[in-house]
Amino acid sequence: MATCSIVRRLSMSGEANWMLVILLAVWIDGASTDKFTLLKSPDYVRFRNIDVPLPGERIQDLVSLSMGFSVEEGLHWPGLSVGNLFHRPRATCLVTVRGVDELPLAKSEISYPIENAVPFTLDSVANTIHSLFPEVPVVLQLAPSEERLYMVGKANAVFQDLPVTLQQIKNRMFQDNSILKTSSLNSLNKNSEADILFLSELQVLNDISTLLSRHKHLAKDHSPDLFGLELAGLEEIGKHYGLESQQFKDATQILVDYLQKFADEMSDIYGGNAIIEVVTVKNFANPFVRKTRSILESVQISNPGSPYNLAYSYNFEYAVVFNIVLWIMIGLALAVIAISYNLWNMDPGYDSIIYRMTNQKIRLD
Fold first, then answer.
1. Which of 141, 148, 186, 311 lies at a C-alpha separation of 20 to 30 Å from 298?
2. 82-106: per-residue pLDDT in tens?
3. Positive/negative CA dihedral, 202, 206, 211, 213
4. pTM for this one?
């Protein structure tokens, strides 16, 4: 009886463990996840509408691959398929919205759950553009809430009037053509600090598309442009009023409307050759500290000396170039050996038409 009781307890504990595992899996599956949403994309950049998680640490690699660039480590993710090799998007704009895991965007938009959302930058994509294209592209990375701005190339001329600091943005908000004068705020209060921060980010979105529409010639050059925008105003609204408040719901809907409007305007400016993406992240997995860059920073190629006489760091394309040169040289060497061998063993009487024609001419003479 004691043995049966022990066996029964073990079986019951095993069943309890399995039930716990199943409940945990259901809870994880039902829990809300961060999203990567595609608002606009040209036909030659093919995203598959499948429910496959996107690794959060590979978002910048996905942006690079969608623009036609290579990455150091292959991205084995089936959501992006091979597109047209002879067309490249003229611009990519990635908007990161903090404080919410999903926005009520149109159901027709393609979206993917993000697995392990971590902070990221588009610096590697910007460096690739600068290294491959002689023309200076438009590169703009902006986070209004942290007063963090990085723009180089032609962006310095286009966005020199763009408000950067919070004080500049606040002053911009009370001008005649600001969104405070042209948009309905519903339950939002223009005197609240959190509301002003949220509205100021929308104002920046509006000003970017407006300034680009005045310089449409930049959308027709041969170098692709890059825009990275990080919006934290909705997160501040949620902290200040609560996620179930009417203010948060109104702010979410206003943000969705402005994102759709921004995507349509950017797509029109670039003639339908722009990729507009939105990343919604409620909380990043790890803290991240970004280096501040000057708005007048320019790309410079430097080669500082090293006191340890270290070798130069190789570019990730070094292996590709090395293999191309190596096998071309091996092929040429084998070709020279084969040609030399056949010439050495050639029978002038049978193998060469020159000798046969010369022999016949001598006989006729």
1. 311
2. 777 778 899 999 999 998 988 988 7
3. positive
4. 0.69
